[in-house]
């Protein structure tokens, strides 16, 4: 397979997100920007899927548990052919299918309706367990936020996945160190984060998403470990990545009533 130019791909998706936000007038922009490279690695290089047959039983499953980051996923799904690109510009409109949180029965390619944080890993565990029970060869990927890991349901699912030795379940944590109203370490510190996942019976790896090839290489190879374990990959990201004045700026966690000046500044920053 051809090597992916992730900086170029990421800039293209971010530009599309700005276009969508300019049309809708609002968006969880910073939350979407931090996950783009993770989504690109999965859909450009790793997962097997058929956009013309989204219910293909052998497909890999992807659950965006931090559903408010959906603008980091929608443009990629449209690009891959799951739905027409014009739907992107009906975002949060009664005339379109794309809401501010993804809906399973409404949007092709969306495996689970998410938004209330903490549910995605339990759903993913069920999908992975079904694959084991029915001897199906697919993997389930679940992308959770770091703030979302405050939820007890995340850790209940983590315990269940380890119990069932679900080595076909991969959790990717968007560890951008911020949540909606402050730094993670001040609101509910997750550290020692790697050790927590290990103590729950998971195989754990860390990657720097400034270098997306690290994640691509890890997911393209067999993870070496003793015994069958689910896999947690701590992805070190930047909230608002790609636009300097959005990075680690909680004012851009969710932005409503975007002004023409702000839209212009977003486009200019993407060209810097």
What does this structure look like?
The chain has 272 residues and is of the alpha/beta class. The protein has a single domain, classed as Thiamin diphosphate (ThDP)-binding fold, Pyr/PP domains (Rossmann fold). The protein is built from ten helices and nine strands. The strands form three sheets. Strands 2-3-4-8-7 form a five-stranded parallel beta sheet, covered by helices on one side. It has a two-stranded antiparallel ribbon with strand order 1-9. A two-stranded antiparallel sheet has the order 5-6. The two termini are 30 Å apart.
List keywords for this structure.
single chain; 272 residues; two-stranded antiparallel sheet; 36% helix; 9 strands; alpha/beta
Topology (elements, then pairings):
Elements: H1 6-24, E1 26-27, H2 29-33, H3 36-46, E2 61-64, H4 74-80, H5 120-133, E3 140-145, H6 152-163, E4 169-175, E5 178-179, E6 182-183, H7 184-188, H8 193-199, E7 203-208, H9 213-220, E8 231-236, E9 255-256, H10 260-270
Parallel strand pairs: 2-3, 3-4, 4-8, 7-8
Antiparallel strand pairs: 1-9, 5-6
Helix pairs in contact: 1-10, 3-9, 5-6
Overall strand count: 9
Main-sheet strand order equals 2-3-4-8-7
Helix share bin: 25-40%
C-alpha-based Rg, rounded:
18 Å
Number of helices: 10
Question: What order do the SSEs take from the amino end to the carboxyl end, as H and E?
Answer: HEHHEHHEHEEEHHEHEEH
User: Which structural class do the helices and strands define?
Assistant: alpha/beta
Full CATH superfamily name: Thiamin diphosphate (ThDP)-binding fold, Pyr/PP domains
Shape summary? globular
């Amino acid at each position: 397979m051809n090597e992916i130019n992730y900086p170029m791909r990421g800039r293209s998706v971010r530009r599309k997100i700005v276009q969508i936000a300019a049309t809708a007038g609002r968006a969880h922009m910073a939350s979407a920007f931090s996950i783009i490279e993770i989504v690109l690695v999965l859909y450009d290089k790793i997962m097997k899927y058929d956009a013309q047959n989204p219910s293909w039983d052998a497909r890999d499953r992807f659950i965006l548990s931090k559903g408010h980051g959906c603008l980091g996923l929608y443009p990629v799904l449209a690009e891959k052919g799951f739905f027409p690109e014009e739907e992107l510009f009906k975002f949060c409109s009664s005339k379109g299918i794309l809401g501010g949180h993804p809906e399973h029965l409404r949007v092709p390619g969306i495996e689970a309706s998410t938004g209330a944080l903490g549910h995605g890993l339990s759903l993913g565990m069920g999908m992975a367990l079904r694959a084991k029970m029915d001897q199906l060869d697919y993997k389930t990927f679940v992308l959770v936020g770091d703030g979302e890991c405050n939820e007890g349901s995340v850790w209940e699912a983590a315990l269940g996945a380890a119990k069932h030795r679900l080595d076909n379940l991969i959790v990717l944590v968007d560890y951008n160190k911020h949540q909606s109203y402050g730094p993670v370490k001040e609101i509910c510190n997750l550290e020692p984060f790697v050790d927590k996942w290990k103590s729950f019976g998971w195989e754990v790896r860390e990657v720097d998403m400034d270098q997306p090839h690290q994640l691509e290489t890890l997911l393209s190879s067999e993870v070496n470990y003793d015994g069958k374990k689910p896999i947690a990959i701590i992805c070190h990201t930047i909230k608002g990545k790609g636009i300097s004045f959005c990075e680690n700026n909680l004012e851009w966690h969710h932005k409503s009533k975007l002004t023409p000046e702000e839209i212009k500044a977003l486009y200019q920053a993407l060209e810097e």
